[in-house]
Structure formats: structure tokens, C-alpha cells
Amino acid sequence: MRKLFLIISLSFAVIIVFSFSSCKERKKTIKIGINAPITGDIPKVGEGSKFAALMWLEDIKKAGGIEVGGTRYPVELVIEDNESKAESAVKANTKMITQDEVLIIIGPQASKQAVPAGGVADNYKTPMISPWSTNPDTTNNRPYVFRGCFLDPFQGPVVANFIKNEFGYKKAAVLYDVASDYPKGLAEFFKKAWEKINGKGSVAAYESFTTKDTDFSSQLTKIIKSGAQVLFTPQYYNEVALIVQQAKELGWKGPIVGSDSWGSAETVKLCGKACYGQFFSTHYAAAGAKGATKEFINRYNKKYGYVPDDVAALTWDALNIAKRAIESSGNITGNIKTDRTSVRDALAKIKNFKGITGDMTFTENGDPKKCAVIVRISNKGEYEFYKSVCP
Amino acid sequence: MTYFFQNLINALQWGSFYALIALGYSMVYGILMLFNFAHGDVFMVGAYVGLGAATLLLMIFSTPLGPLIPGWLLLVITIISAMLLTSILGVLIERIGYRPLRNAPRASAAITGLMIGIILETGNLSIFGAQRFSFPSLIKTETFHVGGIFFTNKKILIVAVSLILMYALHLFIKKTKWGMAMRAMSYDYLAVPLMGVSIDVVAPLTFAIGSALAAAAGVLYGLAYPVLDPLMGVTLGWKAFVAAILGGRGSIMGAALAGFLLGFIEIFTAMVFPSTLRDLIAYSIILMILTFRPHGFFGQAHSAQLRL
User: Fold this and answer.
1) Does some domain include residue A376?
2) What number is the average pLDDT over the span A43-61?
3) Considering the domain boundaries, does residue A315 fall inside one?
4) What pLDDT score does A107 carry?
């Protein structure tokens, strides 16, 4: 009986010692969670996120870890697949927070997953940065959730400012799909911003159509007659092709400007030469990139064999923001809860972060104040960096 | 005034598609007393067949120095092959979908059409996926500018080909024996078979012609709006159906005219009113026309026979 008691107490002692030692072990590594759609509808997005993260980890390992308060801590990535599903993204976040005890989460990318997963991160008071989600709800009223890209409403003023500064036009026309949220919202934001700059009545034509329409001749004829100098159309690639071609056939001479929904390779494929020379606003442009952006693109291209898209670049930036926040959080106490909170506070304080997709400063809401990139479709059909426009 | 004429040209092009598709609805109704609701999707298939034919032709006849044969010839071959292949589809639809139900209640036959339409749409979706296809530009677009009015060679071509096809259909129904058989069949489908004209020949023929016209519309549509998707025939098909009713059931002339009229109403409503209200106002106008002329422009109260 005594022997048994001895064995039990000894094993308890061993367990306690080991658990303490594992606690000490944990103190030494920083775990960063990646919540990405590796499988599912948008595997290319997941791949881009993963590749960018692995490339980033390489750099960190070379440097010997992240330095916080004079000590270097090794970094470990926990990559979870959210299968491009909302419920899997929630599960992945919960697992990474409660089991893996990550310090910060990067992802999910699409708003469909980022909005619910952000709720989980905020409830557990774990900082999360979604690199790609543009839906306002992702960060709204969630102090622990941040994002790496600008929001939908932001592009309206950006495009309005760009047109004003670039061409000095006074009259603009808008053509948008009234039955789809994204174009409708953007059209309204643009109109508001344009009228603020050029005064009332400066939107000479504000025309709409409904999803699946293919003939825009009457709207375009009206737009041409209105005397507008530029046409803004925040549509998706299939409509962009039809609108731009028909506008040219009806004798439209001015520039046609779009938003980040143009940024698919399909736009040029469907639209052809009619789209050459047009502009749109987006997160980042691969062709004609300079400096650190170019370095990133070349390195990624060399390593994985293709030019990274905006998701990879935004993920890269999000990871570097996380790094900066961890570095400036003061010290790693080993208590994951306090550490998470101090990282979140450091994130909120980040100012003028120089990313490859532009400079960022977080607002109170966790959204970055960030410049957009204006892309010009070159005469070869490539998306060329034209200039960056700030709000 | 140039504004008006510009919209007139826009409307002529847009109305051509309605007219060509509406003809198929009206002809089938004249013979079988039912509307083939798969007709809008037959139009979609026609556009895809045209895309396939055009791509193939471009592959065969392209050389490093440019195509061996001129673009307009490629276009003619594309239109004709799309019409022929799609007319086979029309015959199949009649044979599989409608013939077994010829004596079934009319509602069952109408449902058949809807189902065939869904099969064609989802079949296309499962084969080609949701990606959009770009219709190759067989002829070079040339923009003309006359007195403030802009139009392209494609616009002229679309309206011209539509009118030629309509006139050919008119001649066929009026001058040939088969046309006479179709007219007779629509007059009395019980007595005419006794004279040695089988409905099993006339009905497929009607479907074939209707489908061929829809296919021609599909190819022309591909030229004007070169982004094809599997559901492109749904809305257009329904609106052309409205045109067929507006023209008067069974009336060839009526369907063609009403097709153009529908195009005019849509374009000119958007010209006068905010474009957000376009379909709302346009179709309210058509509803009013039908209230005063319930049988359409060329319809007759007690018969729906095939007329010119």
C-alpha cells in the first residue's frame, strides 16, 4: 500500500515537473497561426498565403528568431486549412488558440471565413490579422481583429482623387450593377467623393443595369451625351469586357476607370485591346513594381515558379506587421494571455509601417490607413503599376 | 436628334435578337399549341456551338501569315454550321421531350420544356464550368461615324443577317410545299394527317427551323457581346417569349415586329427614364398593351394558327 502510494506520488511529481518544464519550453518559442484555404473553392489563395508564410519563416530562422526585449525567441508556424468554409475557419481558429496556444493568427483570407473566425479570435482575446478581407464586419467592434488591406468604401474616394489629380476632369459618369452589393456600394462611395471634390451635379450621369444584362448601349449613349469626361465602372471582369467594348463602339473617347474587381487575369482575356490603357485601383501591382515589392516578387517567383498575386503580398505584409508588433510588445512573459494582449496593444500603436503593398497605420477599428495602387493596363495587356494614391 | 438616331440603331440591334428568338416560340406554338420553354437555352447552345465552330475554323485556317480565308467567310461558315448543328438539337428536343407527350395535358408539355432548359443549362455548367468564354472576333470591328452617330460594321451585319433570315423564313412558309404543310397543320392538325402529311415530319421540321434561327441569333449575339455564359439564354429567352405573345401567338410577322418593338421599348425607356427603372417601366408598358390587345398585335381571339 505504501509502495503504491509512493509510486503514485512520484509519478505525480514527475508529471508536475515535466509540465513545468514544458511551460518553460513554451515560453521560448513564439507560435504564429496561419488560417488559410489550402483546399476548397480557392486553393490558389491558400497556396499563396502558405508560400508567403514559409518564405517569411525562412527569413526569421536566418535571423535566429524574433527579438523581444533583448532576447531572441524562435518562431514556429501552425498552418491550419479552413477548406474555404466558414465553420472550418472557426474550428481552425479555436484549435490554434486553445490547443496550440498561438500568440497571433494571420488569416483567414476571404471575408466569408474572416468574419466568423474574427469573432472567435476576439472572444478569446487573441490578436488576428486578416490580410485580404475587405468586408467592414471583419474588424468592426472587434478590438483584437485587424486587417492588412483597405476596405470597400475606401476605394471610392481613392479613385475620385486619382481622376481629379491625374486628368483634372470636372464631370464623371458612373455605370454600375444595381443588383449587386459590391458595385452598388462602390458607385455610391465614388459619387459622394466626386461631388465633394467637384461640387453638386459633377456626376453627369449615374446609370445602372441589373446582373446578367449584356447590352449597355442605351446607358452608354446617355453617358456620352451627358458630356462626362471619365467613366467609373466598379464591375467584375465579364461585365467590364462588355462595357468597355461597347463604350468604344459608341464613340466614347475618355478613360474608363475601375476598382479592384477588375484585377483578375480574365479581364484582359475577355476584353482584349479595348481595355488597354484603362486604369483601376487595387492592392498591389506585380508588373512595374519597385524596391522591396520587386524583391519579394522576384524571390517568390524564383522559389515557386510564378508571380505572386495580391493575397501572397498582403500575407507577407501581415506577417511582418505581426513581427513588428511582437518586437515592440516589450517582453514575452510566458503567460500567453498577457502576451496576446500586449501584442494587440502594440499592433494598435503601429504607425507608418512600410509594407510591400504600401505604408500602413491602423485606425481604432483595426483597419489600416493605406494607399491604394492605381494600375494601368499596358499595351501588352499587363497590369502595370502606375502610381499609388493615398486617402 | 443624333441622340435619338443613336438609340434607334442601338434598339435595332437589340431588337434583332428578340425577334429571331421570338420566331421560334411562335412557330412551335402555331403547330403544336404549346410554347417550347427550352427555346432560350437552345439559343445559348447555338452560341456555344458557334463558339466551337469558330474556334475550330480559326485553328484549321490560321497560318503564321494570317488566316487563309477572309473573316467574313469564316463567319458565314460559323453561322451555317451552328444553325445546322443546333437544328439537330431542336429535332432531338421534339423527339425526346415533346412527342411522347403529344396527347398529354398541355401543362405537362410546358413543364417538359422547362426541364429540358434546365438540363441544357446545367449540362453546360458541368461540362465547361462557370467560367466565361470569349467569342472570337471573326471580323475586324470597324467603327463608322456619320453625323454624330456611331455604329460598327457588326451592328449593320447583325441587323442585316436578321432581316435576311426573317425574309427567308417568310419565303419558305409562303412559297414551299413544306411551308404550306406547316400552315395547313397549324390550321387543323387532325385533318391534315389524313391528307398524307404527317405531324411527325412537320413538328420536327418546325423545331429544326426555330432552333436554327435561335442558333443564328446566338452567333450574332456572340459577335456583339463576346462573353458567353451558360445562363445567358434565360432572361433573353423569357423576354423573347414576351415578344412572341405581344406579336400574337402563331404570327410570324407579329413575332418579328414585336421583337423589334420590345428592343425599342427597352432602349427608349432607358433613354427617357433613369436606367434603374428600365425594365420596370418597359414591362409595365407591355402589360398595358396586352390589357388592351390581349391577343397581341396580330393575334386572333379564337385561333392561334401559323400565319404570316
Assistant:
1) no
2) 91
3) yes
4) 86
pLDDT at A276 > cutoff 90? yes
* One-letter identity of residue B204: P
Residue pair A277/A245 in contact (Cβ under 8 Å)? The answer is no
Give residues with Cβ within 8 angstroms of B114, minimum separation 6. Answer: B37, B38
Q: Which of residues 119-138 of B touch A (CB under 8 A)?
A: 131-132, 134, 137
Is A251's CB within 8 Å of B266's CB?
Answer: no
pLDDT at A34: 96
Q: Provide the domain count of chain A.
A: 2
Are A222 and B270 a contacting pair at CB < 8 A? yes
Helices (H), B33-105: 39-61, 71-92
Pairing status of strand A71-73 against strand B62-63: unpaired
Cross-strand bridge partners of residue A79: A34
Instruction: Give me the total of CB pairs closer than 8 Å, taking one residue from chain A and one from chain B.
Output: 82
Q: How many CA atoms lie within 13 A of A161 on its CB side?
A: 15
- The answer to whether position A25 is within a domain reads no
Same domain, A274 and A158: yes
* CB atoms B276 and A266 under 8 Å: no
A175 and A136 together in one domain: no
The answer to whether residues A173 and A261 belong to one domain is yes
Handedness of CA B198, B200, B203, B209 (dihedral sign): negative
Residue A390 lies in a domain: no
Cell numbers 492592392: residue: A283
Q: Residue B276 carries which DSSP code?
A: G
Q: Identify whether residues A204 and A297 lie together within a single domain.
A: no
CA–CA distance, A40 with A51 (Å, rounded to integer)? 17
- B230 upstream amide cis, omega within 30 of 0: no
Arithmetic mean of pLDDT, A103-125: 92
What's the rounded Cα separation, in Å, for the pair B199 and B192? 8
Find the Cα–Cα–Cα–Cα dihedral A304, A310, A312, A318, rounded to 10°. Answer: 160
Read off the pLDDT of each residue in A123-148 and give the average, rounded to a whole number. 91
B267 contact A CB<8A: yes
Please tell me the predicted confidence (pLDDT) of residue B175: 93
Do A42 and A68 lie in one domain? The reply is: yes
Query: How would residue A24 be classed by pLDDT, with cut points 50, 70 and 90?
Result: very low
- Strands of B174-283 (E only): list them: 227-228
Going from the C-alpha of A168 to that of each of A108, A158, A197, B132, the distances in angstroms are: 40, 14, 11, 36
- Domain stops at, among A252, A282, A312: A282
What φ, ψ does residue B244 adopt, rounded to 5°?
-60, -40
What is the extent of the structural domain holding A141? 30-150+290-370
